[in-house]
Amino acid sequence: MLIIGITGTLGAGKGTIVEYLAGEQGFVHYSVRAWLLEEIRRRGLPGNRDSMFKLANDLRAANGPSYVTDQLFNQARESGKNCIIESIRTPGEITSLRQKGPFVLFAVDADPRIRYERILKRQSETDRISFETFLANEARETVTTDPNKQNLSACMKQADFLFLNNSTRAELFTAVSLALSEINGK
To answer: Which pTM does this prediction carry?
Structure first.
């Protein structure tokens, strides 16, 4: 069983990589975002990025930096299949997942304007924001010294593979396919 974690900037293409891995390679997908949104709904909180950010940080502060991804890892382990855990956001999550078995971290990034246009097109309830709010959200999630808060910059530095996604889906799929070949030793 291989676990691939995916980290990256907002709108960079994490979901597109998931689409390829799940659709073309048979990986089972576990989403931090979906898990948090379910927890937000269960608690009766507003379904927006601020609620996700606060809830995730509160859960990590109460239970440890890897709490959310540990919950998803437990589900993944039960499947016994190759899995994706999407939206790795803290270095503690990476440390925990690396200790649990075969784990590879993918990171994806793209130009901020391209990423903003992408989030507008996907029309998620958490993405109906201005470009300025988009940049502010990303800034608060990029760097921190608190191990229980999101630190995308530190996560991306720990990636085994970094994909720059300023072009087409086909080019991203090719890059991911090449990474898989390298992982599998082909």
So the answer is: 0.90
The DSSP bridge partners found for residue 31 are: 86
- The interaxial angle of helices 131-142 and 112-122, nearest 10 deg, is 110
pLDDT in tens, 101-143: 899 999 999 999 999 999 898 877 667 788 999 899 888 888 8
Q: How many domains does the chain have?
A: 1
- What is the residue-wise DSSP string for 82-120? -EEEE---SHHHHHHHHHTSSEEEEEEE--HHHHHHHHH
What count of residues does the chain have? 186
Backbone angles phi, psi at 26, to 5 degrees: 80, 15
| CATH code: domain of residue 18 | 3.40.50.300
Own/partner contacts of 32-40, CB < 8 Å, gap of 24 or more, are: 32/56, 32/68, 32/69, 32/72, 32/85, 32/86, 32/87, 32/88, 32/89, 33/86, 33/87, 35/68, 35/71, 35/72, 36/68
Buried b (16+ CB within 10 A) or exposed e, 151-162: bbebbbeebebb
Q: Which two tokens mark 164?
A: 């720059």
Q: Which range marks the domain in which residue 139 is found? A: 3-180
